[in-house]
Design a protein that fits this description.
With 237 residues, the protein is α/β, with parallel strands linked by helices. The chain contains six helices and eleven strands.
Length: 237
C-alpha cells in the first residue's frame, strides 16, 4: 500500500452531469467536505460535457474573450479552473478522475503526488497495451512535467493531464484522460490557443484510441481502478 494514499477510498461514479462549469466546481465542493471530514477520502469519476477549462493565467491574456468564443464556436463550454496551467479541452470521450483526500498537512508530499499519479496512470495505460510514459512532450498543450503520453513510431501524444489543489486539511488531485474522439479536442485547442496567442504543436493532441483502435473509456476506467487496487482498498466499485 502507498503511504501517499488513504488506506481506503470510496469510489463515486457520477452518471449524471450537472453542466460544464458546475461539474468543474463540484470537485471543490467535495474538497471542502473532505477537509471538514463530512466526506471520506474518495475517487470521483465522470465523463464530462464538452469543456475548455482555461487556467487563471489564460484569463489575463488579451485574447481570452476571443478564446472563449472560439470554444463556443466548436461546441465546447468555456470555464475557468482553480488548479492547473493552460487551457485543456475534454468531452464525453474523456474520463476525469478526481482523487480527494484529507491530510492534516496537505502541502507535504504535493510534489511527490505528481510523480506518483503520473506513474499510476502510465502503468494503467500500459496494462491495456499502450506504450505510455511520463514527462512533458515538446510543444504539448497545457504543458506539465508529469504529463502522461502515449507513443508509436510516428508520434507522441499527450493522453493524461494532471492538476492539484491543496487546502488546509485536504488535497484534490484531478486527472483528465483523453480516450476517444480526438479530432474535436484538437480543433478547439487549435482555435483557442490561436486566440490566446500561445504557440504549441497540434500533433501532440490526441486520444488513446488513436494509438490503440477500439479502446473505450470503460476500458480505461477499469484499468485505472485495477491500478489503484495495487496501492489502496476501494469501496463502492
Amino acid at each position: 500500500m502507498s503511504s501517499l494514499l488513504a488506506p481506503r477510498l470510496e469510489v463515486h461514479k457520477q452518471l449524471v452531469n450537472q453542466g460544464a462549469e458546475a461539474d468543474l466546481n463540484h470537485a471543490l465542493d467535495l474538497l471542502a467536505e473532505v477537509k471538514d471530514r463530512r466526506q471520506n477520502a474518495m475517487l470521483r469519476l465522470y465523463r464530462p460535457e464538452p469543456t475548455v477549462a482555461f487556467g487563471q493565467r489564460d484569463t489575463r491574456l488579451p485574447g481570452f474573450a476571443a478564446a472563449e468564443q472560439a470554444s463556443r464556436n466548436n461546441g465546447f463550454v468555456p470555464a475557468v479552473r482553480r488548479a492547473g496551467g493552460r487551457a485543456a479541452a475534454y468531452h464525453r470521450g474523456t474520463l476525469i478522475v478526481d482523487h480527494i483526500q484529507p491530510q492534516d498537512d496537505a502541502i507535504v508530499g504535493a510534489k511527490a503526488r505528481f510523480g506518483f499519479f503520473g506513474d499510476l496512470f502510465g502503468q494503467a495505460l500500459q496494462s491495456l497495451g499502450l506504450d505510455a510514459g511520463v514527462g512533458e512532450i515538446p510543444g504539448e498543450y497545457c504543458p506539465g512535467e508529469y504529463s502522461v503520453y502515449g507513443r508509436n513510431a510516428a508520434a507522441s501524444i499527450k493522453l493524461v493531464g494532471t492538476a492539484q489543489r491543496v487546502v488546509s486539511g485536504a488535497w484534490l488531485f484531478s486527472s483528465v484522460i483523453v480516450v476517444e474522439k480526438s479530432e474535436p479536442i484538437r480543433q478547439v485547442l487549435i482555435d483557442s490557443y490561436a486566440a490566446l496567442g500561445l504557440d504549441w504543436d497540434p500533433s501532440t493532441a490526441g486520444a488513446a484510441e488513436d494509438l490503440l483502435p477500439g479502446l473505450t473509456v470503460e476500458d480505461v476506467e477499469a484499468a485505472i481502478l485495477a491500478a489503484y487496487t495495487q496501492h489502496t482498498q476501494l469501496s463502492g466499485t
